[in-house]
Amino acid sequence: MTPETYVDILNDALYLVILLVSIIIMPSLVVGLAVSIFQAATSINEQTLSFLPRLIVTLLALIYGGHWITQTLMDYITALFLSIPTLVS
Fold it and tell me: Where do the domains of the chain lie?
């Protein structure tokens, strides 16, 4: 195995991690920004007002995107395992 092979595998893995995490984090960031703007406009400094909507949106993102996340991760791992004979020889 050449160093370029290791770099390609690492590159694919990091891209997959960024993709899967962004599916969960991006909706939470958008809701957090909207709640922050609402809190700044109304001068409400309640901590649960900023935490609870982000928690709910994150859980909804996991519920709706969980199947896709699992399938994508399984496809990557399957492709990685199937490429072992070509990488070793």
Answer: 3-88
